[in-house]
Amino acid sequence: MIKKNLLFGIAALLLLMLAGSAVSIAVRQMQNPDTEDSASETILDSEEISDSEPETASPEEEANENLLLTNVPEFPAVPLTLPEIQHQDALLTVEAEHAQYTGALHEEEHPECSNGTCITGFSGQEDDSVLASFMIPAEQHYDVTVSVRAEVPGKNTLVLNGQEIGTFTLNDTGHFTRVTVSGIYLTAGQADVAVQQKDGNILIDYFEISNNTELEKIKYDYQYELSDPDASENTQNLMNYLAKNYGKNIITGQYTSGDDNAELDFICQKTGKYPAIRFGDMQCCSGNTTAEHKEIIRACERWAKQGGIVGLMWHWDAPSGISSVYAEETDFSLSDAVPESTLTENAVSYQTDVALMSEEEIQTALENNQISEECVSILHDIDSISKALKPLSDKDIPVLWRPLHEAGGGWYWWGADGAQAYRWLWDVMYRRMTQYHNLHNLIWIWNGQNESWLVDKYDIASMDIYLDENQEFGSRYEEFVSLYRMTKHKKILALSECGSLPDVNLMFRDNTVWSFMGLWYDDYLSELDSETLINFYNSEKVLTLDNVREDLKS
Questions:
Q1: What is the rounded distance in angstroms from the CA atom of residue 208 to the CA atom of residue 303?
Q2: What DSSP element (H or E) covers 156?
Q3: Hey, which of 10, 116, 277, 353 has its CA 20 to 30 A from 539?
Q4: How far out from the chain centre does Cα 101 lie?
Q5: Which helix H or strand E contains 413, and what residues bound it?
Q6: At what angle do helices 294-305 and 373-394 cross, to 10 degrees?
Q7: Contact yes or no for 435/377 (Cβ under 8 A)
Q8: What is the pLDDT of residue 43?
């Protein structure tokens, strides 16, 4: 599976133009439904797809659908293990000229330096490095800072105890900037901080380590309410359940590659537990897609019967033109679909509001050149996905609904034309699905990955995080804090996709407890270390299917 990478720095202050801290993520590439899986599919047009209903199961099928695996292994509960954190004020500083510097580096007087002297002379050689040693007074979280000035734009790396903790780029030259990596957990004793140059030349003034206070102040007790005032009873119950457990437990989730539960059964065979959330992909429901949705919906219904939580995303093939979700592979442009707009100082208003138009009104607007063919194709696809989801709505099966994901990366067509067009599309989709099609069983997950793409109406904010093979997943507190700042602590935060499992102990140590997680399938699951999988699913702070089905019944 090919990966596309989007790399940001980690919490460097000069990069806070977007979120207040930065993230390090990579995004997996989905299988193309038009190639690998198309052999067994029947080509249907979008109208046929949207109007078809899931087939009714026979009594024999119904009986089989109610069976989960039996005779599975049992493991003891894994207790949470936390260190004794010693909250203590600390402010430690080492002037760069008092640090160890190697290679061509040398001292240079500069009037803006705190002590009148800096270290400079970076030449691009690997042995150009400055290392400062600190004595850490207490076991707790710290912020690590370096004061630097760029002579020319360049990239540099901050290293702590031999491990890279962040890469920062200085584009703004001519003055000193404090670059900070926040929330690093350190034990008492010596800690070594170094700067290694990637390119460009910099001056280093000083290094600083101070106690972090932001993580300990994260709270989980906000009144989290659904954005849809007409949300169904079961949908409200699920949202209340998420809110009740937020910060106290993490809910398990697993993506499925097909309409069966192969990945879920695999986990149960290994751990004795089923994940609570079954995540699927509505990669049908487009005028450009040849897949059917009936079996996807039936799989959701079966999982709901087991007491599980249903989650769905939408790899939405471009509504017209060349069929692909990827901007570089399709000629469809979202900008061509957006009606004329009027920009004001604080908002954007669109001269033609299409969200609640009937089919007749859409046709009239097209004939009058008020909207484009691209806009019509978008509306038809939203209608198609709405009709596909209607059986779940009719049965009041709540859905964790995550459309238009990873928009900030720009690799999908819905994010490639900028934040304004994306926000228009989100607003149209939200209102058309909830107000025109009356789907009130959806819990809307915004997964834009970037503050510029933040929307008005949504219920949960999430991150998708994929790391290099040699990186420990940890708690991903950097991304949690970034999202916490973006949403002003008013939304539940989730790990909507991940390439490996978060560390439960570290999440609670760092006070960054994601509401739920969704592990991707294929090698991300099959190549997981068995002990890691067993310990995660049997942690006392992890909720699985057996927990959820009991709790939501009561």
A1: 52
A2: strand 154-160
A3: 10
A4: 39
A5: helix 413-416
A6: 30
A7: no
A8: 25
Task: Using alpha carbons, list the distances in angstroms from residue 197 to 17, 61, 150, 240.
Answer: 23, 63, 11, 49
User: Side chain identity at 141, as an amino acid letter?
Assistant: H
For residue range 226-264, list pLDDT tens digits in order: 999 999 999 999 999 999 999 999 999 999 999 999 999
439 to each of 77, 97, 384, 396, 398, how far by Cα in Å? Answer: 39, 64, 13, 10, 10
* pLDDT at residue 14, as a whole number: 29
Work out whether strand 117-120 and strand 106-109 pair parallel, antiparallel, or are unpaired: antiparallel
For 45-72, what is each residue's pLDDT tens digit?
333 333 445 555 554 455 455 569 999 9
Residue with tokens 């949207």: 50
Count CB-CB contacts under 10 A for residue 14.
18
Q: What is the pTM of this model?
A: 0.87
Angle at 333 between CA 458 and CA 369, to 5 degrees: 95
d(CA 44, CA 42): 6
Q: Which residues of 394-411 are buried (b: 16+ CB within 10 A; e: fewer)?
A: eeebbbbbbbbbbbbbbb
